[in-house]
Amino acid sequence: MGQGGEPRRPQPRDEELGAAVARAQEGDENAFAVAYRIVQPGLLGYVRGLVGEDAEDVASDAWLEIARDLGRFRGDGAGFRGWTATIARHRALDHLRRQRVRPRAAQLEQDALELPGRHSTHDQALESLSTERALRLVRALPRDQAEAVLLRVVVGLDGPAAARVLGKRPGAVRTAAYRGLRRLARQLGAAGAADDRAGGVTDGGPPTPGGPG
Q1: How far apart are the first and last CA of the chain?
Q2: For every residue of 156-188, which 3-state class applies, written as one string?
Q3: Which terminal Cβ of the chain has fewer Cβ within 10 Å, N or C?
Q4: What are the residues whose beta carbons fall under 8 Å from the beta carbon of 162, sequence distance 6 or more?
Q5: Of the candidates 35, 181, 203, 194, the residue with the CA atom closest to the CA atom of residue 108
Q6: Which pTM does this prediction carry?
């Protein structure tokens, strides 16, 4: 569990990432390639959650800036994830401004706030976030929730690091991520129930408990 009780995925390669970044700063191109391979999947998922199908181009622009300014970075592997996410976010917002795309003002439904906070539903949402369908669901969240979920789950940042990327207080980011995950869990649960109904007992199925044998 992450800070504030939020589920978060561990980042077991942060030590390897930190070592690769340190070598890359000394001019080791192979080490930079290692750092890229570790960070890129989560970074691309984050950018895709912001700009959709233009994510590859925006992420490429971000990596050009990352490579250019690598010597200025100070920190460990986890810090590098946050630093690269900040750069990618700036490039994504620049792209949205150029395209004159404005975030849709989606209001949080009251019933989403009243859902029971079961960890199992959070886990279900987390396990599904690697899919394109789930990223589309994330993009439909209110902007603050979408970014918090993407940074916490897809990029793998902890609460304070995500807050630094967004320029917000850690408590506000934790709350946004929690609400976003609950809403995702609700949507995923509704989809699962629909699938169950579609494939449920119809023709000649077994009797329901307590029914006629």
Answers
A1: 46
A2: CCCHHHHHHHHCCCHHHHHHHHHHHHHHHHHHH
A3: C
A4: 82, 148, 151, 152, 155, 170, 173, 177
A5: 181
A6: 0.69
